[in-house]
């Protein structure tokens, strides 16, 4: 039985809460490199927190009664600058989302003056997938406003890491680089069903991350990639 068949079985089969299964492990990677000023950082973090509180996002999260989603959030910038803001947590109800949104809002930015190590961010996220529990799908949601300029570039990762079972979706913020969407499309996104979302600037980020989460958390359709 394929993954879609497993999801349909979860939908149709009533199970007690303790017997629920994880359908998606999703890690959100937020850019905190030097190109992101403090106001832009607030827009990014608040955008994720608001998305977790949004009714449409919550419908996408809880649309399958017998399955839950694992969420994680981390910040990334330089080669060795990755900080977990929210470690893996099973989202089973609204209270879990509210606690996660509160944690994001109370977090103090980890780095301010570091380069953009996008390849290293994906290496870190890949390792986080190995720490996640058994889930139907594994997805990395990486946001950024610039091309990688330190460490291994993302286009060289394919020779070192296997992403066959991991989907990397991108959210390119075009405020500093208008062609960043093309860079993300060719070098960053990868894996089954990978897609790109674009925000014209940080002001547009909250709406973009909401659209992105709804799509990432949706039930795959037959024939959809």
The CATH architecture assignment turns out to be 3-Layer(aba) Sandwich
Q: Structural class of the helix and strand makeup?
A: alpha/beta
The CATH class turns out to be Alpha Beta
Q: Termini distance?
A: 18 Å
What is the chain-wise order of helices and strands? HEHHEEHHEEHEH
At the fourth CATH level, what is the homologous superfamily? von Willebrand factor, type A domain
Secondary structure tally, helices: 7
Give the low-pLDDT segments. 14-18, 221-225
Percent range for helical residues? 25-40%
pLDDT averaged residue by residue: 91
| Main sheet specs | 6 strands, mixed
Percent in strands? 15-25%
Under CATH, the topology can be stated as: Rossmann fold
Number of E-state strands: 6
User: What number of domains?
Assistant: 1
